[in-house]
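Repro:
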Amino acid sequence: MRVLALVLVAACTPAASLLATEIEPPGENCAAGGQVVRGGLDDDGDGVLDGNEVDSEVFICATGPRALVSVRPESSGDRCALGGQAIDIGFDLDGDGQLDVSEVISTSYVCSGFQPFIRVRLLPAGTECEYGGQVIESGADLDGNGMLDDLEVIWSTPICVSSDGLQPLVKVTHVSPGGACGFGIGSTISVGLDIDRDGSLSDLEIQSSTTLCNQVLAPSEIIGDVIVRNSFDVAQLDGVVSIMGTLTLAGSTVPYVPRFSTLQHVDAISFEICPADPISFPELVTVNFAYLCGSSIQLPRLVSGTVRWDGVDDDVVLPSLTYGRLDLGGSATSVSAPLFEVGSLSVWSTSLSSISLPVMSNGFITLASPVLASTVLPALQYGGVSISQSTLLSSLSIPLWEGGQSLGLSQLPRLTTLDVPLLTTLESLYIANAPAFPTCRAQQLAAQTNPMNVTVMGTDDAAVCP
């Protein structure tokens, strides 16, 4: 009997060889970071190279210098009206761990006076960056929606990829209360190299970081000149009460939010560009000298100052002005200063038809307008009056005027009546080119006031006075 023995031998399949690539952060293995390639056998056959299956690893380190970010103070000036901070980004070319001036490739600015908002977005290849890159943008959250909108961006700094692909990527992380800024908030700015070339900066790729916390609020008083170019600069002045210098409004590259809500005193105000939109100084009380431009400036609480205002083409109302000097040019239709008591007012307008100065008692008034029909200065007691170039003015009444410097009336073809019953003294009397005004009335006035200088010409010699 023959016995057949069957021996079963199981086939033995060798374990698969696996490779895994991961980002290697900057450190002992790679100074500037890089990648690590690990190899081994998939002993458990799960298709994943586990830590206990690694037999070898090779480090592929990033070539070139390490990316760095640093923050330095920015003095008051063109970039930041009240100063702030400059964010420098670049490569540590000499390997000393510091970002030197010559190593900086881009700088962004965060200005003092409010909590800054910073964002980073991708920049496609094009005219601004030939090979693409990123752009760092900073500004102020002017509408309070918790985001930096496009119209709120003031500083925009591109960081371009070079022809060899070298580019520090940037990531901005919001810092909440209780974090690196204590009870405040802020932003952490991180830079590194895009080792895995996915276009974003992961935590393992970060080579340098710095944190910007809440900025110091604007001081209540500024000693020196301030230049305002946009809404960003206006926001910095929130909380400022006094500027001991010149406030210059120099135009805008983004829409203004033109409300200087806390400003009470300024040495001087000037405009380089006439504003198209309303600009409000709701708390401004005093200004030594202001050169204003356009019709859309609001000064509801201005009490005293010297104001030259050109380009006016609407009604001018200064409800609180009490002392000072006001010069208006352009085509203002009316002027109202109900509390103006002492000072001078000059209006050179092609459209002025009425003027209201109900309590002005001491000062000098100069009016020049072809459409001014009648004028009453009910409270003027001392000072001077000059009116010219009106083709409609037929009467002038100053019932309480007792004396002053001068009276000048010229180029007034319809003027026939002058009511100054209490006027007793004048230094100068000038009446010319008023063909309807009686010459005898001018002579009576000269005898009544005994002025040092008298000029009467171009008046009606044929008129008879009582």
